């Protein structure tokens, strides 16, 4: 593990915590969801490493073991942080895998930094193209009442909110689709998040419009999503992302909740590795 300095101007350098398996295999960078950390990829890292890939995870600013500054919780900065990781490790021919909120980094990265370092990308249960339900985005799955309820719940009682959020994250029809240990581990990671960072990042993933970013995704693309995801519903997100990216592949995981990389880890890993081999 290491710390990578992300440079964003005078007096704004921050340390990002990075875990890198090393080796000579083609690099795969796993970008975590909200409000977790790079540790949330524990079911993927060993499988990818065993398949011969160099696997890099990092904690988003404000989360996990990374610095927790007061600013920078919007997608231009998040994508610049991702570029800082790729530059510091000199990663090329990389596959970017963005889970949930992390899918926004993937889309915005290609707009801001291009595809010179990128071999392919994966949107996993990801928030693009645009979560917010607005007059010009009626298919957005996140209405104002739900968004405001989440924000208020996090403000009122952070620990209770994370307990319920991680329960919903891994549930289908009110029943956990993972072990209680897996759910509790996600809650532990959520509780490492800075409160201010969590609120600002929630606002970012809920309100950022990626519709103009998706045409810039011109590398091979996989969209993988659970059909029972109630946190980021497939019809309003993964389905639309697949339709917006020419030539993208789609894999829908039957009976999977939002946390598909844990609940259906074997299927998720198989589909991901099959895509990486192409």
Automatic annotation (TrEMBL):
Statement: the UniProt record of this protein carries the keyword Mitochondrion: no
The entry's keywords: Hydrolase, Oxidoreductase, Peroxidase
Pfam name, any one: Abhydrolase_1
Gene Ontology MF terms: hydrolase activity; peroxidase activity
Positions of the AB hydrolase-1 domain: 27-263
SUPFAM superfamilies membership: alpha/beta-Hydrolases (SSF53474)
Family from the record: Belongs to the AB hydrolase superfamily. Bacterial non-heme haloperoxidase / perhydrolase family.
Annotated protein name in UniProt: Hydrolase
